[in-house]
Specification:
The chain has 14 helices and ten strands. It is an alpha/beta fold. Strand 6 and strand 7 form a beta hairpin. 47% of the residues are buried.
C-alpha cells in the first residue's frame, strides 16, 4: 500500500445499495488505492444525514487502508456516487446538495446504482442492466446518451421481483399449500424450518407480531432456487415467474431506448443472478433474445463499484484510458476485496 499511498486518488467511487455500500479510491492509471465495504447509506433507508456520516467513515477507513495517516482524508478530484433511491429528479437534487455540503470530493456525479452495474458489466458505455437484488430496477443508456430507469423500482410501480418478493411468494405458497388452497410443496417444510419454526403460518404470525422482520424474507431466495432445482413444481413456478419479470424489465428499457435491432449488452446485476440454476438463466436469456436477437446477455461478474469507478474515468478521460480500465478490472474484484465472488 505504500506505493499506492504516494498516488493521490482522482476518483472516489461509491456503489450504495439497499443492503451495503462499497467505496473505492482509484487514480487515473486505474490503480486501486483502497476499497472498503460497509452498511447501506441509502437516504431512503437510513436518512440523508446518517447516510452521509457513514460515507465519511467509510472514506476515512479507505484512506487508512491506502496508507494515509489517521485523520488525513483524501480529497478526490471527482466523486461518483451510484446510489439506491436516486430515482427521481428530487432525489438527485437532495443527494447532490448533501454530498456537496459533505465535501467528500472536489466535484460530484450522482447516478442511480443501476448504472454502476451496467458499466461494470459491459465494455461499452451504453446498453441495459437488469438489477435483481433485494429489490429490482432496470437502467439503460442509448448510444446517443439517452437514459432510462424505472422509478421508484418497487411494487407500487409494478416492479415485481427480487429477493424480497421471492421470499414473500415462498411463504404465501407454503401457507396456502398447508391449508389446502394450493398444491403441496417442499416449501411447507423448508420455509418455517429456516426460521426454526414448524408451520408456515407460524412464520406469518412471527412477522405480524414483530419478532421476525419482514425484510428477512429475502433470505429465502436461495432456498427457493434449491427447491426448484430439486424438482419442486411450486418453487419452479416462482423461479420461472422471476425470470419472466427480468425479461419484461429488459424489454421495457430496450423498447423505450429503441435498442431492439442493435448489438447491445444486457447485464444481469444483483444477487438473484448469482444463482447457478441453468434453467433460470436460459429462460432469461431466451426471453430477451426473442425481442432483441442481437443482444449479448451477460451475468455481472465484477462488483458494481467497478462501474462507478469507470464512470469516473470516462468523465476524466485520462491518458491510456483503455489500459486504465483493464488495470482497474483486474484489481477491483470480489475475490481480492471481499474474499468470495458470492459476496453480496
Amino acid at each position: 500500500m505504500a506505493e499506492a499511498a504516494r498516488r493521490p486518488p482522482t476518483v472516489l467511487a461509491v456503489d450504495g445499495g439497499n443492503s451495503k455500500t462499497d467505496v473505492a479510491l482509484v487514480d487515473d492509471s486505474g490503480r486501486l488505492l483502497a476499497a472498503v465495504r460497509g452498511p447501506t447509506t441509502s437516504h431512503q433507508a437510513v436518512g440523508l444525514e446518517r447516510g452521509l456520516a457513514t460515507l465519511g467513515r467509510l472514506l476515512d477507513e479507505a484512506a487508512q487502508r491506502a496508507g494515509l495517516p489517521p485523520g488525513q482524508r483524501p480529497m478526490a478530484d471527482l466523486g461518483v456516487f451510484c446510489l439506491a433511491g436516486a430515482d427521481f429528479p428530487s432525489d438527485l437534487r437532495v443527494l447532490r446538495f448533501g454530498l456537496g455540503r459533505a465535501g467528500l470530493a472536489s466535484s460530484n456525479l450522482v447516478f442511480n446504482d443501476g448504472f454502476a452495474g451496467l458499466r461494470a458489466g459491459s465494455s461499452r458505455k451504453w446498453g441495459v442492466a437488469v438489477i435483481m437484488g433485494r429489490g429490482v430496477n432496470v437502467a439503460g443508456v442509448a448510444p446517443d446518451g439517452r437514459t432510462y430507469i424505472h422509478a421508484p423500482g418497487d411494487p407500487t410501480s409494478g416492479d415485481w421481483g427480487g429477493g424480497g418478493e421471492v421470499g414473500t411468494r415462498a411463504l404465501a405458497a407454503a401457507v396456502r399449500a398447508r391449508d389446502g388452497r394450493a398444491p403441496r410443496t417442499a416449501l411447507e417444510r423448508l420455509v418455517p424450518a429456516y426460521f426454526g419454526l414448524t408451520r408456515p403460518l407460524d412464520v406469518t404470525r412471527e412477522i405480524y407480531q414483530g419478532r421476525i422482520g419482514e425484510r428477512r424474507l429475502d433470505e429465502l431466495a436461495p432456498m427457493v432456487f434449491e427447491a426448484a432445482g430439486a424438482g419442486d413444481a411450486v418453487a419452479r413456478g416462482i423461479v420461472d415467474w422471476l425470470a419472466d419479470e427480468a425479461v419484461l424489465l429488459a424489454r421495457s428499457a430496450i423498447r423505450h431506448l429503441r435498442l431492439a435491432r442493435l448489438e447491445l449488452d444486457v447485464v444481469l446485476s444483483g444477487g438473484i443472478f448469482r444463482t447457478m440454476d441453468s434453467s433460470f438463466h436460459e429462460r432469461v436469456r431466451g426471453g430477451i433474445l426473442r425481442f432483441a436477437p442481437q443482444a449479448t446477455v451477460l451475468p455481472l461478474k465484477a462488483p458494481p463499484v467497478v462501474g462507478a469507478a469507470l464512470l469516473g474515468l470516462d468523465r476524466r478521460e485520462p491518458p491510456n484510458r483503455e489500459e486504465a480500465e483493464k488495470r482497474l478490472r483486474a484489481e477491483l474484484t470480489y475475490e481480492r476485496l471481499f474474499g468470495s465472488i458470492l459476496a453480496a
